[in-house]
UniProtKB/TrEMBL annotation:
Assigned keywords, A-Z: Signal
Cleavable signal peptide: 1-22
Keyword match Signal: yes
Xref: Pfam families: SBP_bac_5
Location, primary (coarse class): periplasm
The protein's name: ABC transporter substrate-binding protein
Organism of this sequence: Tropicimonas omnivorans
Upper taxonomic lineage: Bacteria, Pseudomonadati, Pseudomonadota, Alphaproteobacteria, Rhodobacterales
Length: 509
């Protein structure tokens, strides 16, 4: 592996100068050149979902609230103040002087239009699935004031406002003849963020310029050019040749190798994605199977060497975890029962459970094959005969939907939401095929955390739920993931604890 990486690096260096690029990257022309493998085809984040589109929206768009990634506290953004009238009525005041990129001044009508459009019958916005859970309607109460009417108590309202809904001018999704035009902002975006779009070639390049009338803190770098470069080898070559300043989702071995060269710096930051082993405690695949025994599930937990997996297989800033959530998420207490690596304890628990001679278990996985193989090897070492079924994600999803999977190695990124709700409601509540606990009381506990807006009460509820999950060993939490970047050594790029790249915070050294 090392020889292959070094050879690849040498090859990149050798042909770097031959790769054409738009201009020499760096601080001389105050232009940050960014490489993304995923194509940017739509500039309107209200209609997209991928991480790359979130990165773009952070540059071009504005929201009512901001979320501090360090403290997870909310602060006004386009909103200047807010007040809960009751549990389902929220008053919001807007700051004066917020300007859209087309020069028009943002008003309460614009905000009401944006939210009401997203939840309307005509809208097929990607943001609709998140917002229609809680929003009934938005009422204009003044030039710069609004009232949000909620369907029910929902504690993540401000978080959704801060992360999911990007503000648009009134009528943004209407054509000149009055018909609906959902793609109106896809290529001709009118946002209110720190950068405005100068030019856009879908799937190729987006050119951004600092918006001088931006209402917030002005970004340090004047221009940003986002280039779609699907091949990581091309990205590497461009970085080494000076045509790119920033790239992410870099394989660890590549990042470490190129990061030792003077043309690049390797940065490793946290990511909200976590890896885990899900166990069929409910007995969907075998109602009397070994995994329905809590001691067997505890044995599985003790058998896994999370520390070595995190350090040597995931690398970077990855850490072992012992909670069924990311420690950076709101409500993810680490003060619950944990299962440190202890093969002898694992064997003893198997003996107590009546499986001293082990048992056969199918283990499904779809990504990070070395980690899946390490999990299998650790379980084999305590006597569990593992049949590793490494498949494509579509095959795993299909088998899981049909309740054919006794155990699987999965990952979850929570959609970038640093709240335990984003992982708990999917994996431990209701009849989701990801929930293999079969624990109806746990479902009630998890969902009750979304029926109160009191943060301290929510923390208590999640502590109760996470304690149950740990005591019953419904999961074997494994590790957090790491995000690896390669950047121009002259670039100061701060890393956020939630793993979201915020390019508007970058500056030159």
């Amino acid at each position: 592996m090392l020889k292959t990486t070094v050879a690849a690096t040498a090859l990149c260096t050798a042909f770097a100068s031959a790769v054409p690029h738009a201009a020499q990257a760096g601080k001389n022309d105050d232009t940050l050149r960014v490489a993304l493998a995923e194509e940017i085809l739509n500039l309107d984040y209200n209609y997209t979902t991928k991480r790359e589109y979130i990165i773009m929206a952070e540059l071009t768009d504005a929201t009512l609230f901001d979320l501090d990634p360090e403290t997870q506290e909310f602060a006004p953004a386009v909103a200047s103040d807010w007040e809960w009238v009751d549990d389902t009525t929220l008053n919001v005041d807007l700051r004066e002087g917020v300007t859209f990129h087309d020069g028009s001044e943002l008003s309460a009508e614009d905000v009401a239009y944006t939210y009401n459009w997203i939840v309307s019958d005509e809208s097929e916005a990607q943001a609709k699935g998140t917002i229609e859970r809680w929003l009934e309607t938005v009422e204009v109460t003044g030039d710069l004031s609004l009232r949000f009417h909620l369907k029910s108590v929902y504690p993540l309202v401000l978080r959704d406002m801060a992360q999911r809904v990007k503000l648009r001018p009134e009528g943004a999704y209407e054509a000149e003849d009055g018909s609906v035009d959902e793609s109106a902002m896809a290529t001709d975006l009118v946002g209110a963020g720190p950068y405005k779009v100068v030019s856009f070639e879908p799937g190729q390049e987006v050119v951004l310029e600092r918006f001088e009338e931006y209402w917030g803190e002005a970004p340090a770098i004047e221009n940003v050019v986002v280039r779609n470069l699907p091949d990581i080898g091309t990205q590497q070559a461009e970085l080494m040749a000076g045509g790119v300043d920033w790239m992410f989702k870099v394989p660890l071995d590549v990042a470490e190798s190129l990061g030792n060269m003077p043309q690049a710096a390797h940065l490793s930051g946290p990511d909200l994605r976590v890896g885990f082993l899900v166990l069929d405690a409910a007995g969907y695949t075998d109602e009397d199977g070994p995994l329905t025994n809590v001691k067997v599930r505890q044995a599985v937990n003790h058998a896994l060497n999370r520390e070595e997996m995190a350090e040597y297989l995931i690398g970077g800033s990855a850490k072992p975890i012992y909670t069924p959530c990311h420690p950076a998420q709101f409500g993810c207490t680490e003060d619950i029962p944990a299962y440190p690596y202890d093969p002898e304890k694992s064997k003893a628990l198997l003996e107590e459970a009546g499986y001293g001679d082990g048992f056969q278990m199918d283990l499904w996985a779809y990504r990070d094959k070395p980690a899946a193989e390490a999990i299998a090897a650790d379980l084999e070492a305590v006597g569990i005969d593992v049949n590793l079924r490494y498949v494509k994600l579509a095959s795993l999803n299909q088998a899981r939907a049909q309740r054919e999977i006794p155990a699987y190695f999965g990952t979850w990124g929570s959609g970038g939401t640093a709240d335990t709700a984003a992982i708990a409601r999917v994996h431990f509540a209701g009849d989701s095929d990801r929930n293999l606990s079969g624990d109806g009381q746990l479902t009630e506990t998890v969902l009750s955390a979304e029926q109160t807006a009191d943060p301290e009460e929510r923390k208590k509820i999640y502590e109760e739920a996470l304690t149950t999950i740990a005591e019953q060993a419904y999961w074997a939490p494994l590790f957090s993931y790491s995000q690896n970047y390669l950047v121009n050594p002259d670039l100061e790029f701060p890393l956020s604890p939630d793993g979201l790249p915020r390019l508007d915070k970058a500056s030159w050294k």
